[in-house]
Design brief:
The two termini are about 20 Å apart. This protein has about 550 residues and is an alpha/beta fold. The longest helix is centred in the last third of the chain and has 21 residues, at about 500-520. The chain is globular, with a radius of gyration of 22 Å. It has helices at about 15-25, 55-60, 80, 110-125, 140-150, 190-195, 250-260, 285-295, 360-365, 415-430, 500-520, and strands at about 1-5, 10, 30-35, 60-65, 70-75, 155, 200, 205-210, 215-225, 230-240, 240-245, 280-285, 315, 330-335, 370-380, 385, 395-400, 405-410, 440, 450, 480-485.
């Protein structure tokens, strides 16, 4: 055991929920250490392949649960490195959701009007820009044209992308080698380091315990940079303030394991997990009908055949984001690109005579992969996920050297969730199968269950202690000085991409954390200035 000393603030995780308070607190004079279980990767590491040891296997964590599977970031910068940079604000109605429990899920102190100034702060810091139709990709334009043909509306999606630097290579899910995607590697993280924060990659936090002076001791393992199953060392670090931001699939596990040393956890820790109601549909486009019905063509004479060209989601239909509609019937439909290896396995073949997700029929549609269009559903689920007892180490039992693990999350979709998925699937078919444009099938749940790239709500904020692990300032109930600021704090599915909301909530939490830190003897002040921008994601020299 190596005692690594004391600081003012320990931040667990370096995604939006971790890097934002790390920068703000370091800029305000606090001594900050960030512990990140993944590696520190930069633009030069983000290759365009899926070979073992590439960014595509090192930067992701695919955690298989019982009925729910989570794909998330596992690197410095967390989900901001592997997200598609789509940054819409949550619709106003989502803050009034009651779910099947019939009680308000969000704290009364938080609604869209209250959160808008914090959204504005994030938009300036990354920054986020509104796309116009000239920025929409071939697949986004196809989706917009199909929506128009069906009498629906569609909109360009706001994004955190430097459009001048983007090459439309469509590899942004595996990081951006051109630094066009405005991940945290270009703003909050280098700004935090410039103010003295220390980032320690390959540090996997196991649990927390108390110190004699009322602070906390964070216990961690260090892991091998190639095989994450190999523990290369152990250590502790003490601080009066701990910010848990390891992600909605890891933060509750760390807190569950800490119960033996910290005392009883709130009952909502590790419960009420939401997969953001996510589901995917794949359309196999009929190129002739795309030309004849929609009147689309490319300069080379092809009608479409451009699934892989461009960037992630650029166009969405938000017709169902209507606050007058009943809960569980509201969802967004967003055009999306999943690169080979992610998007091909679970896609089903329409009209298959045998198995729909593998076999001869599946092989035939794979030949036409350039004519695919994937539609991403984000709906209102019922917060059905529950985490079982934590594993011996980490947040899940690692199966392979990198990327793959099995966790204790159990998810059984309720009738409410299933009805939302069915309505969204029917909408996709209605839009894309009109006049023979395509054949549409959802990704199968039969192989591994449901799946999400936006895990939420496993340690959520709220007013009701029975439903929420955190108060409305993000402080863990019964454990003053511990705050949770990542996606696990979001009370429910948002019906849109959640990164912007997670970041806005993290910004909103910082003044309260500063106040708590000062009360615990930390010499710190709140700094509202946006982070300075780095020209490249090159790793700073002053890191742990």
């Amino acid at each position: 055991m190596t005692d690594t000393g004391k600081v003012d603030v320990v931040v667990i995780g370096s995604g939006f929920g971790g890097s934002i308070p790390a920068y703000r607190l370091a800029a305000g004079g606090a001594r900050v250490v960030v512990l990140e279980r993944g590696p520190w990767l930069t633009a030069e590491d983000f290759g365009h392949d899926f070979k073992f040891g590439s960014a595509s296997t090192r930067a992701f964590e695919f955690t298989m649960g019982d009925g729910m599977n989570v794909l998330g970031g596992n690197c410095v910068g967390g989900g901001s490195v592997v997200y598609f940079a789509a940054m819409p604000r949550a619709p106003r109605f989502t803050f009034d959701r009651h779910g099947s429990v019939g009680r308000r899920l969000w704290p009364r102190a938080v609604d869209r009007a209250h959160l808008d100034p914090w959204y504005d702060m994030v938009a300036e810091s990354l920054p986020i820009t509104r796309n116009d139709w000239d920025d929409v990709t071939f697949s986004g334009g196809l989706w917009a044209a199909a929506c128009s043909h069906a009498g629906r509306t569609a909109n360009p999606v706001p994004a955190a992308i430097d459009r001048a630097a983007c090459t439309n290579c469509n590899w942004m899910m595996s990081g951006c080698r051109f630094d066009a995607k405005r991940s945290l590697l270009l703003n909050y993280i280098p700004a935090a380091v410039a103010h003295g924060a220390e980032i320690r990659p390959l540090h996997e936090v196991q649990y927390l315990s108390r110190t004699s002076d009322g602070g906390y001791r964070v216990h961690f393992n260090t892991v091998d940079e190639v095989d994450y199953r190999i523990v290369t060392g152990t250590g502790t670090i003490e601080a009066p303030i701990v910010i848990v931001a390891a992600g909605a699939a890891a933060s509750p596990v760390i807190l569950q394991r800490s119960e033996a040393t910290l005392g009883e956890m709130p009952t909502a820790v590790g419960r009420n997990f939401s997969g953001n109601g996510e589901r995917l549909n794949t359309a196999i486009m009929n190129e002739d009908r795309v030309r004849e019905v929609l009147g689309l063509s490319r300069a080379d004479g092809r009608a479409y055949e451009a699934y892989q060209i461009g960037k992630g989601p650029t166009c969405a239909s938000w017709d169902r984001l209507d606050g007058d509609l009943p809960e569980f019937s509201r969802y967004s439909l967003e055009q999306l690109y999943f690169p080979p290896g992610f998007g091909t396995i679970l896609a089903q073949a329409p009209d298959a005579t045998g198995p729909s997700w593998f076999g001869l029929d599946k092989k035939e549609i794979l030949k036409r992969w350039q004519s695919w269009l994937t539609i991403f559903v984000m709906s209102e689920d019922d917060n059905e996920g529950v985490f079982g007892p934590p594993p011996a180490t980490g947040n899940a039992d690692r199966i392979s050297q990198q990327m793959l693990s099995r966790g204790g999350l159990r998810y059984r979709p309720t009738a409410n969730t299933l009805s939302g998925w069915a309505a969204a699937d029917a909408d996709c078919r209605d839009i894309l199968e009109r006049d023979g444009l395509a054949r549409v099938m959802p990704w199968t749940n039969d192989v591994i269950g449901a799946y999400t790239v936006h895990p939420l709500s496993s340690c959520r904020i709220g007013d009701d202690p029975e439903l929420s692990a955190l108060d409305d300032r993000h402080e863990l109930r019964g454990h003053p000085g511990i705050f949770v600021t990542d996606g696990s704090a979001v009370p429910a599915g948002l019906t849109v991409n959640p990164a912007f909301t997670i970041a806005a909530l993290a910004e909103r939490a910082v003044p309260g954390i500063v106040e708590a830190a000062a009360a615990r003897g930390v010499d710190v002040r709140y700094v509202s200035a946006p982070p300075a921008h780095a020209a490249t994601s090159r790793r700073p020299l002053t890191v742990g």
